[in-house]
Design a protein that fits this description.
heterodimer; A: mainly alpha; 3-stranded parallel sheet; 7 helices; 3 strands; B: 170 residues; alpha/beta; Rossmann fold; 4-stranded parallel sheet; two-stranded antiparallel ribbon; 40% helix
């Protein structure tokens, strides 16, 4: 089973129809907590057309909706184990992972890299990570 | 009695002492550049309670996000005071009085409650960075009705102006 990293258009579709499993179009999506926080932050800053209250209403509905409940959309979080497994170059812990030990990388991107990093214990492969990198490389303005 | 959440700078100083003179809580935590006297006292109290009382339930808390920020700005924040492998050992097996809080969907409602801008003393509005809001949301998520509020160690001049946590910053 392959996972895709959702684009902003995908998120808009999910927020609009959180119970419409057809909105996933037969695919499985792997989003991140950074995506959800950024959706809220952009509404807070007035950077999108919907109000903050409306955006929150949609997010609450999404988190309880069929897409999430039926695992068509998973939202990866950064817990202790995920951090431990992702923040070092290798299990010895001698060095930090070079993709996150960089102050010039925006925190949104670093958070996404940590939660999407592929390794043995995760089992979703490196496709979502690669898609995320490619997506934000094309969208520098989204501060991804 | 209450938990204390450390922001990124507070965590950096805490870890430098933890791996240095405070010797993983066997010694005392002291006031330093990013750790106030009151924060050090709170940390020592929590560690002492865990040593003396099986029922102790307050924790020193840092978000995984604060660890992420330390990784991003390692040289600037850590300045050679400890090594990554020591950090790995802590993340792998933290002391029972130290809790590593997740960045997860439980933070969303608290993150939402925080303002986009904060009114400063001089009357000018300053933007609250989302990175700072994560620490505040973590502290707010630890509050329980009828119990003292979680403390938040920060020196950020905007965070201390947020009404929801202004009285809890140490």
């Amino acid at each position: 089973m392959g996972f895709r990293y959702p684009t902003w258009d995908d998120w808009e579709r999910f927020l609009e129809s959180p119970n419409d499993i057809d909105a996933a179009r037969g695919e499985f999506f792997l989003g991140t907590i950074a995506d959800v926080l950024q959706l809220i932050e952009e509404a807070k800053k007035g950077a999108v057309s919907v109000s903050l209250a409306e955006r929150m209403q949609h997010i609450r509905a999404l988190l309880n909706g069929s897409l999430v409940v039926r695992y068509l959309l998973r939202i990866l979080e950064l817990d202790q184990q995920a951090l431990l497994e992702a923040v070092f170059e290798d299990p010895s812990g001698q060095e930090l992972w070079s993709e996150v030990a960089n102050k010039d990388t925006r925190p949104w991107r670093t958070l996404r890299r940590l939660v999407l990093r592929d390794h043995d214990n995760r089992g979703f492969g490196d496709q979502p990570y690669r898609e995320m990198e490619a997506f934000f490389a094309e969208e520098p303005g989204r501060n991804g | 009695m209450a938990d204390i959440v450390l922001d990124t700078d507070g965590l950096a100083d805490f870890l430098a002492q933890y791996f240095g003179p405070a010797n993983r809580g066997v010694g005392r935590f002291m006031e330093s550049e990013w750790l106030s006297h009151r924060a050090a006292q709170e940390i020592n109290r929590i560690v002492d309670f865990f040593r003396l009382d099986d029922w102790a339930k307050d924790h020193v808390i840092a978000s995984t996000f604060a660890f992420m920020e330390i990784a991003r700005k390692w040289d600037q924040l850590i300045q050679g005071r400890f090594r990554p492998y020591q950090l790995r050992a802590l993340l792998n097996d933290p002391d029972e009085w130290f809790f590593i809080a997740s960045v997860d969907t439980s933070l969303i409602e608290f993150f939402y409650q925080l303002p986009a801008t904060v009114m400063m003393e001089g009357g000018n509005a300053e933007k609250l960075e989302w990175t700072d809001a994560v620490h505040v949301a973590t502290a707010l998520s630890r509050n329980e009705p009828g119990l003292p509020h979680c403390r938040l160690r920060t020196r950020d001049t905007r965070i201390v102006r947020i009404e929801l946590v202004a009285n809890d910053c140490v």
